[in-house]
Amino acid sequence: MLPRLSLMLAMVSVPLSASGHALLLISIDGLRPDYVLQADAHGLKIPHLRRILREGAHASGVRGVLPTVTYPSHTTLVTGVWPSRHGIYSNLTFDPLGLNFEGWYWYSEDIAVPTLWDAASKAGLVTASVSWPVTVGAKAIRYNIPEFWRAAKSPDDLKLLRVVSTPGMVAEIAREAGPYILDLDDAIPGDWARTRYALWILRHGKPQFMTLHLAALDHLQHATGPFSPESNRTLEQIDDMLGQLEDAARGAVPDVAVCVVSDHGFSAIAHSLNLMRAFAGEGLVTLGPGAGFRGAPVVLDWKAFPKVDGGSAAILLKDPADEATRAKTAQLLARLAADPANGIARILDRQAIASMGGNPQAAFWVDMQANFSAVNSVGALVIPAKGGTHGYAPSHPEMLASFFMAGPDVGHGLSLGEMDMRSVAPTLAAYLGFPFPSAEWKPLALTGGARP
């Protein structure tokens, strides 16, 4: 007798979407659009990305969300709304005392609005996803391997993954595709594992709407900066993965389009501003001795806390009605911003935060200059740094994300100009032929010729 999953797959029939289209949505984490738009300048051998650019539609850049980090951005890509509405405010949950041991926003129940998977499933389409953020427990995804870990390098995490994925699927794929790799720091091997698992689902499950998150480029850019030889070689390998995924998608489902997106851009850094030292020095955070989980400062109590996201930091008040703490925090931030050596670009107030859709609980937001990151550490106020980061306000040009799409009824050589990230979800929903009224933007037209 066939195992339960094999029996389910054997019964798969491919329904037609209202438009007759299918879609494979691939996120290449941290892909700046100029990796593709200026590939020659960087000596990049990326034939599949170049072909999608030539044969399809693309954006000159996608303006993202506040902060420009992975989990809020990926959630905006599939909801069409800002973090202030969908509720995924950062990568990690707000946990100033370290009680959650660096828990991330893994769980789909935290998304406060409908997703593309919800709408596609409601329209009768077969859905699938591999390693897309915030998908643990996403019932609308028929074949789901969510991005999830606790220790990342522990074999027990694979047991967790098998439990939170579609029952039986990870073990069945492993017999053909080898072990799944959870550790995002195991960059290229991890992306190849995710690709092999996605290939299996494409061939056996024949999804009409599938999402896949590839993370290696982000990891290499953090370590070595954007456009480094290591980052460029990583993207060239990801381009090989893209070619295999395209072939499998076209062999599995008729009239499939491939859309490559990213969540944010990247900036090289040389310095970091240690906000924890500044806040502790003003008595806004009370630190204990030693170091906590993964070397983080031990926080005993706090009145105002800097929630750091690489290139920026949300400042939250323990008591939002505490006007004395609010004033003291504002004075500290003004002093820090007045010294050019600290690398602060600007301090956002609540009105500016709201205009970018950031966490509505934040009282202030520290946005760093492109060469600086913000950190919480036990070191000096300004410390040397290397590599790259993201997380700045979306107004930084280095933070522009990517959109490249080719397939049936997509215009050849079509330039969409600069897109708002909230327009991606309604545009893809319209291409697949189902309504998506909860999005904050209207869909963009993907047909027609090149635009100036």
Write the layout of secondary structure elements.
Blueprint: H1 4-10, E1 22-28, H2 34-37, H3 47-55, E2 57-58, E3 61-63, H4 70-79, H5 83-86, H6 116-122, E4 127-130, E5 143-145, H7 155-164, H8 169-177, H9 187-205, E6 209-214, H10 216-224, H11 229-252, E7 256-261, E8 267-268, E9 271-274, H12 275-281, E10 285-291, E11 297-302, E12 304-308, E13 312-317, H13 323-338, E14 344-348, H14 350-355, E15 364-368, E16 372-375, E17 382-384, E18 388-389, E19 403-406, E20 414-415, E21 418-420, H15 424-432
Parallel strand pairs: 1-6, 1-7, 2-20, 3-21, 4-5, 4-6, 9-16
Antiparallel strand pairs: 2-19, 7-19, 8-18, 9-17, 10-11, 12-13, 13-15, 14-15
Provide a concise account of the structure shown.
With 452 residues, the protein is α/β, with parallel strands linked by helices.
